Amino acid sequence: MAKLDLIMFEEEYKLLQEIIGRLSKDASAKVVFLVDKNGQQIAAAGDVKSIDATSLASLTAGNVAATDGLAKLIGEKEFSLLFHEGEKDNLHISIVGKRGILVVIFDQNSSLALVRLRVKKASKELQEIFDQVEQRAQKESDTGGRFESPFSEITDEDIDRLFGD
Amino acid sequence: MTFINYASREINCKIVYYGPGLCGKTTNIQWIYEQANPEKKGKLVSLATETDRTLFFDFLPLDMGTVKGFKVRFHLYTVPGQVFYDASRKLILRGCDGIIFVADSQRARMEANIESIANLATNLKENGFDIRSIPYVLQLNKRDMPSAAPVTEMERLLRFRSEPMIEAVANQGTGVIETLKAAARQILMELQRT
User: Fold this and answer.
1) Cα-only R_g, chain B
2) What is the mean pLDDT of residues A102-107?
3) Per-block average pLDDT, block size 10, for chain B (194 residues)?
4) Nearest residue of chain A to residue B16 (CA atoms)
5) For A140, which residue in chain B has the nearest alpha carbon?
6) Cβ atoms of B46 and B64 closer than 8 Å
7) Long-range pairs for A89-93 at CB < 8 Å and ≥24 separation?
8) Neighboring chain A residues of B3 at a CB cutoff of 8 Å
9) Do B1 and A14 touch (CB under 8 A)?
């Protein structure tokens, strides 16, 4: 089955966070989000509190997925960049590697050209980390062994407790 | 595809409500949204038409508490049930961890239920999943309808892998949480094995 869980360790997460933090400053952006193609937020930088990040992640992934479908319909592999221009704020969405989406929100303090330039550089760095995560997951899946999962001893009671029983 | 973040000690699971048009997928999610503790739930996002039919998806993030020191978060999605939205349905199944199939108990909708399960199998396959092994729950919704088919008949027609089968009246909340719990149980148990 084509099912590899995305498992992110502290050191990888820190690196990702560092890169998008830098991108947010360099591009004079308001907020930068790194989202997984399945709609889950991976990391964020900038004025994060101003936005409902969870909804943003899910809608971005939906948007990218729909655009992906459109690309395939007209015989393109993908559209690697989406840009939405608003009255005040703009949204720059780009694909990173196979599973990442980079979302940059910016206003008149920045420009599309600057954002594109900075995103390009950051994307390359982000991709390297995604590749590492992927390779590790692949290796663990191939060897059958995997680091010890914290969920190996989950019980029915644990699940009941989640539902407040 | 579960996302386990060791840095923030969070685990995110995606659960998709599937089923034929007007079977009550959105109603399930809305009921959960209305009942959930405000601290636990995020915003309910609905991409619907003007007549309140789901156009792309509904989305509800739920914080469930912790298991083994990890915050467990469910992302609930519905698909648009209407037949012609198939391309959208396929997209929403991407990276899902479990499926809740909402069947409409009304006799006249039995064919639509069967077709929708077949469609689910195809769309899962295209996303690299197998309907016979992915965490899966069958909900028999609208049990209060006068034209509801008997449970035994629905079981014979729709149940194919001894999956948990739950009777529900989603607009009154009957069976809604039980269904979600049955799906959660399978998904979290699956994490043990992977």
Assistant:
1) 16
2) 97
3) 82 96 97 93 91 92 90 95 93 95 98 98 96 97 98 97 97 97 93 72
4) A38
5) B194
6) no
7) A89/A30, A92/A116, A92/A119, A93/A60, A93/A63, A93/A64
8) 5-6, 8, 36, 38, 40, 42
9) no
Please enumerate in sequence order all residues whose Cβ is within 8 A of that of B180, keeping only pairs 6 or more positions apart, or say none: B15, B28, B32, B74, B76, B100
- Taking residue B128's Cβ as centre, other Cβ atoms within 10 Å add up to 14
Q: Is A149 on the interface with B (CB under 8 A)?
A: yes
pLDDT, tens only, A30-43: 999 999 898 889 99
Mean pLDDT of the residues in chain A: 89
Structure tokens at A163: 């539902």
Residue A22, burial from CB neighbour count under 10 angstroms (0-12, 13-18, 19+): middle
Which amino acid type is present at position B37? N
- First vs last Cα of chain A: how many Å apart? 34
User: Whole-angstrom Cα distance, residue A101 to residue A93?
Assistant: 7
CB–CB contact A58 B181 (8 Å): no
Residues A103 and A93 sit within 8 Å (Cβ to Cβ): yes
B94: nearest CB among A55, A65, A158: A65
Report the C-alpha gap between B187 and B194 in whole angstroms. 11
Summarised one tens digit per residue, pLDDT across range B89-100 is 999 999 999 999
Q: Do B67 and A55 touch (CB under 8 A)?
A: no
- The three-state secondary structure class of B48 is strand
Q: Which of A3, A154, A156 is nearest to B182 (CA)?
A: A156
- Cα atoms found within 13 Å of the Cα of residue B119, Cβ hemisphere only: 24
Q: Quote the pTM value.
A: 0.89
- Closest residue in A to B62 (Cα) is A54
User: For residue A3, what pLDDT is reported?
Assistant: 53
**CA–CA dist A115, A120 (Å, integer):** 8
Chain A residues near residue B59 by CB distance under 8 angstroms:
39, 55, 58-59
Please tell me which of the candidates B91, B127, B192 has its beta carbon nearest to residue A152.
B192
Contact B3 A40 (CB under 8 A): yes
For the beta carbon of residue B39, count every other beta carbon within 10 angstroms: 6
